[in-house]
Automatic annotation (TrEMBL):
InterPro entries: BBS10 (IPR042619), GroEL-like_apical_dom_sf (IPR027409), TCP-1-like_intermed_sf (IPR027410). It comes from Bombycilla garrulus. It comes from the Eukaryota. Transmembrane segments: none annotated. GO terms for biological process: chaperone-mediated protein complex assembly. SUPFAM superfamilies: GroEL apical domain-like. PANTHER family: BARDET-BIEDL SYNDROME 10 PROTEIN. Gene3D superfamilies: GroEL, TCP-1-like chaperonin intermediate domain. This is BBS10 protein.
Amino acid sequence: FAELHAAVPGLPLASSRVLPGVVLRRDFAAYCPTDGELRALLVTESLRPTLMGPGVEFIVDSEGQYQASLCWIAKRTEVLMKHLQSNNVKLLLSSAKQEEVVVYYAKLYGVSVVECLSSEEMALISEITGVSPYTPFGDNVDREITETTVVTFCQPLLLVSKRCVHIGFISACAFQPHCLILCGPVDGVNEQRAAALQEAFTMLQQLFKAVDQ
C-alpha cells in the first residue's frame, strides 16, 4: 500500500483520484519523450564501467593515464547505451544512483532514466512485470537483453510542487496496478485517511482469504 498511494497536501479532498499504473515519487534523471509502448530495464547497480575487477588494484601514474581512463569509460558507456537502444530499451529504472556519464549517454541515445528507487519499489515492479533486474554484461556487448518489460506510457506527473514519474506497466499476473492520489489540506488529514484506507484493504484481504478457504 505504501508504494501504491501518494499523499498530496495543499489540495482539496475532492482532488483525490485513482490513476492507472504506478507513481514513483521522484523526478527523471533523464527524460526522453516517446510515443506508444516502450521497453524498460531494471538495474540495481551503476552502469558506468569500472577499470578494475574484484581483488584488482588499478594505479594511475600520470594525468595522461587518468584522462585516457576517463576516455575509455566514456566510450564503454556509449557502447552500452547503443546496445540498450538496439534492444529497444527506452527506460532505465535503477535502484542505484547513476553516474553523470551514464545519464549523458542515456539522453544522447533516447533512454529515460529514473534512479534511486527503493528496494520496495523495485520489488513491486518485479512482482508486477515478472522481470528480474538486469546484470551488466561486461565485455559481452553482443548478448541479447531479455530482462525487459513493456511499458504502455511513461511521463512526468506534477503533484503540486513535487515532480513524479507516472508509469503504466503491462502486468504479468492478474494484478493490475493503480495508484491512489490522496489530497487534503494538511499532512495530518492525509495520514489519517491513508491509515483508514489501509485498514479497510487489510480487512478485505482477510475477508477474501477466508472465502477462498
